[in-house]
Amino acid sequence: xxxxxxPITLTVNGKTVxxxxxxxxxxxxxxxxxxxDLTGSRLGCGQGVCHACVVILDKSDGTSEExxxxxxxxxxxxxxxxxxxxxxxxxxxxxxxxxxxPVQQKFLEHFSFQCGYCTPGFVNAATVLLExxxxxxxxxxxxxxxxxxxxxxxxxRCTGYVRYFEAVKDVVLNTPGLVKEGK
Length: 183
Prior knowledge:
Shape: globular
Strand order of the largest sheet: 2-1-5-3-4
Strand content: 15-25%
Distance between the termini: 62 Å
Number of strands: 9
């Protein structure tokens, strides 16, 4: 018995991938891990609850959103642009990390993670939030609520929530243009 496959072509971290034959019904996290060797997205609950597996879907209108890769089929992403946690740091010509993204750097400075399993999901959530705030800044009085809403669905079994929150707040407050004064 053979497994039915269908080609998939997408852009991952700025690079076109495919067409690659992938089994119909293959979840995106498995496609990333097994076909692209991108293992940063973590399979936590496998039911879309913990959000450790989220990737960023870049939409054609310039917005982005988190998508849970453990419950979303790889073929959903056919023809789309996706970013994984591996796509945030700046690399040199040899593929070596030369600079972390502002979110990654603040997570390190705030010792935001303990085991690190949930960190890729939090990095992607915070990145989506920063991109949203660049388009639509919030008032200083709305920062805490906005960050909480953005991170709320993510589960950290080591209870690093406060550190993640503080790191994201640090990035938001220290990135020009994300906060508008007043209400």
